[in-house]
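Data deposition worksheet. Section B asks for the primary sequence of the deposited chain exactly as it was used as input, without tags or linkers unless they were present during the calculation. Section C holds the resulting structure in token form. Section D is free text for depositor observations; keep each observation to a single sentence. Incomplete worksheets are returned to the depositor.
Section A, Depositor: J.P.
Section B:
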Amino acid sequence: MAVRIGIAGLGFMGVTHFRAYKLIRGARVEAVATRDPRKLQGDWRSVGGNLPTPIGGVEDLSGIRRYNNLDDLFADKDLDMIDICLPSYLHAEAAIKALEHGKHVFVEKPIALNIEDADRMIETAKRMKRFLMVGQVLRFFPEFALIKRMQQEGKYGRIRGAFFKRVITRPTWGDWFSDPQKSGGAVIDLHIHDSDFVQYLFGMPKAVFSRGLIGENGDVEYIFTHYIFDDADLCVSAESGMIAMPGLTFEHGYAVYFERATVRFDSLWGNPPLLFTSDGKKKQVKVAQKDAFVEELSYAVKCVSKGVEPEIISGEAARNSLLICLKEKESVLTGKLVEVSS
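Section C:
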């Protein structure tokens, strides 16, 4: 029996998720909610974003229940899961309401903008005995999933050093996004991808030391962080920001140093990751050409249908990634090393 899904919000991510569900066996979008009457009619030509994913266009929404307010969507008794793709500052209250209506919830990252809200979401999910899942999609990108797989297999030994990069042009879409009080700014909205992946690979850091650039709005628009772990021989860093010129819309990548291999990837190359091994050889690593959003949402649907705890996209993991980012911002603003505690 298919998992019946309602999507809250039809911006860039809502449209991306809607189209991803079409490719997922066992998933069926039965309802959507948005205040925009044109989007409710399937006119999505105004939808934009900063990723190379196909967006916009016109969609046939016949047969799909359409709501112009969230309360009606959450109260729909014929839905199993609500997929929340609203602006970040609305995540907490929407997720809590959906959970209290007995729905499983998938919410786009960040889980929330502060730890108190994230904890309320997690506590509500536990009380209602429902899943709270958070879209930390980088864990499902084939080029990044490769690193996790290599780490688990252990063929090339331990990771001794890693550097991650995520840089975009300052977005021109979405009025709410330019307000850090609503989006969380570059650190919470953008950099959280890499902070989360660092946690995915190595667990919670003991402390962070960050430097950054403060924008005209007083928020951190570029950040460079060193993550400090109990293992003094593990060196991990990351940079992120909305600092690139308009011709460089989006770039992410990494350099990861195992004991007996090095792997490098940059999305600007347009090529698979490169593997350098201790015998002096170099080769491209062919990764599965899978859509990360399809993989992520397939995992969420599987967890709901089988009643399996969603460990990879758990609310707790997303909450801890938010905590790391908040500590990084504190480090930039104070100029000091800041301890991290889960």
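Section D:
The first strand starts at residue 3 and ends at 8.
The chain has a mean pLDDT of 95.
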